[in-house]
Amino acid sequence: MLKYILFIILILSVFSCTSVTKYNEQRLSLIPPEKLREDVDFTYLKLQEMHPKLNWYISKEELDFKFDSLKTTITKPLTPTQFYFKLQPVIAKIREGHLSLRIPAKRFSKKEIRALKNKKGLFGRFEYHVKGDHLYFIENKDSIQNIKPGTELLSINNVPVSDYLKKYRELISSDGYNKTFYPYYLKDVFFNFFVAEKGIMDSAKIETLYNNERQILTLKRETKDKKDLEKDKAEKKRSPEKKLNDYVVSTSSYNRNFKFLDKDSTIAYMKIKSFSRSFADRFYKESFAKIKNAESSYLIIDIRENYGGSLYEINQLYSYLAPEPFVLIKPSQLASRVTPLKTNYFKTSNPLQYAYKSLTYPGYFLYQAFNVYKGKDGIAYYKMKENKSTKPKDNAFKGKVYVLINGGSFSASSIISSKLKFDQRVTLVGEETGGANDGTVAGFYSYQKLPNSKIDLPIGLLLVQPNITFENKQKGVVPDVEINENMQDIIDKKDVQLDWVKNDIQRLKDSKVEN
User: Where does the Tail specific protease domain lie (predicted)?
Assistant: First the structure.
């Protein structure tokens, strides 16, 4: 057995050394138009075969027309990246935020990765804000080129940023017809698209606008000094606090935070940036124990710009808020009984993982097969803990709960927001979520590879819907109290949504005193 594992590791190690070079060569190759049209047909066929709700927001006739029309525009050879920019806008019209081709970005050798780790980012050292066709700097911690918050980025290497924004907006979609998701997600992925399209640069000429004054500046990728490298090393160390709050090295921030907002601990505040599941059980157990010991009357849960994550984690969180047993989501629908067996079990495995998975695959196969059942309606469903009854925790919070949401609240964030609102358990404050009120298609994925362009197409296999009565408005979760922030609020670090909640809590406190 050991010889078998070592042999697998050796073979895969040799393969990985050549795969980067081969992939990058293929990425730059021109593919004949007839082969690209085959990829269009392959894409649509796989979507129809595996996606359980393909025509939720677009009719089959309209989608047929869009795929057919796309093929008529492919008349010359294209690289995979060029083809991506033609095919992905059509997929975005399906209006499923989880459904997207993987852009064929350059892959890097281990040597190149090590070199990049010793350099600072070019554009990634700023924070941005998108409004319409405008991109603004809102934070510049390192005071690079003295660029002030509120400065607009007009162009990069003489190409207007507005052109990029229009182009990249066509590549993404929220769930349904909601519009709030775009500015949040676009500011986060803008430079992912830019680098995939243009490559990694050591410098860039930019044009900026601040207080009606235009400037031409050059950004340079600087080499990290000893202090920077020591900081990187320190951030990678996993202290108990970092584990509990799920520290993310790439953003130098925590996924979870808990604190009291007042001296007498009557207001508890929980910020959750991602439902990552890592150490979630312990975090909620300890946080709600603190709330109970402090006898807090108010709880604020902040899931703004939380793109989602684990259903298990939101079920755990809900169990600390529910007054009685609850079912978080409805039975999870599949396109067919066999789609769970097409999940690419070996994807993204290193040599050791691949060897291990090759031994455990039979058990995985049986697990997937046994979790599928046929409903009385003849539809295939997948068994999940979250569509069974869950009991509230012994120390579930019984006071007043506010949940802060915005257009960056997506996927699992929208699922729990929708369920909490339907059960009238909380007051939602902020703006409409980027994820749909009535659920989404995600769960686990089948990773298809287009045969000629070799672009990856992950297809969500589960229809995940909150256990509510649907309104079929094809929008996000609408807050009970709508409070919008503007760019100046962000620059001034003025949290108008949280301030509203604090003021409302003070109002409630004052009314209790008067009575």
Answer: 237-484
The phi and psi torsions of 504 (rounded to 5 degrees) equal -70, -40
Reduced to 3 states (helix: H, G, I; strand: E, B; else coil), residue 509 is: helix
Q: Residue 163 belongs to what H/E stretch? A: helix 161-169
**pLDDT tens digits along 75-85:** 999 999 999 99
Task: Report the top-level CATH class of 119-219.
Answer: mainly beta
CB 286 within 8 A of CB 320: no
Contact (CB, 8 A) for 172 and 92: yes
How far apart CA 174 and CA 138 sit, in angstroms, is 24
pTM for this predicted structure: 0.91
Dump pLDDT digits (tens) for 246-255.
Answer: 777 666 678 8
CA atoms within 13 A on the CB side of 100: 17
Residue ranges per structural domain of the chain:
119-219, 238-334+384-514, 340-371
For the domain made up of 238-334+384-514, the CATH class stated in words is alpha beta
Of 413, 468, 467, 411, which Cα lies nearest the Cα of 440?
Answer: 411
Buried b (16+ CB within 10 A) or exposed e, 144-165: beebebbbbbbbbeeeebeebb
